[in-house]
Model the fold of this input.
Amino acid sequence: MRYPLSRNGLESKLPTRSRLRVRGEHSRSASWRSGVLSLGILLLGLSAADSRATEYGRAVTVSATIAQGASRPAYTVGQNFVLVVVNSAAWGASSCRQDAVAIKKEDSHLLAQLLTALQTGKPITLYVDDTLRPIDAVICQVTVIQVAEP
Done:
């Protein structure tokens, strides 16, 4: 293959290595900006969802706990939750069921705190998240347990 000669010597009609690098960097830069923009939009959506979550807390008297297994075909919606039956009272401005809350099995630290409080007779304050309703869309999920000295 022959290349045409110019005044400055032999030149190729093909793009030079430096031209390829610039083109490659440009396309990487554009895709990087596109990725960052997509990530920003995703994070903005997540933070907006979190800002709607509202926690309500109150002192409770526990009258019963119902632990449900990992496999409960008759009532699958309650699987892996501990239902805690408490004295009936409003959870602030929420529409959560007033006499029961749910604790996820994975939240073992919350379950341990609850059992310790029940065994020692210490006052319990539960906090529920109004947006987390794992059982029947009315029973709210416990997110914090506070145990105080009597």
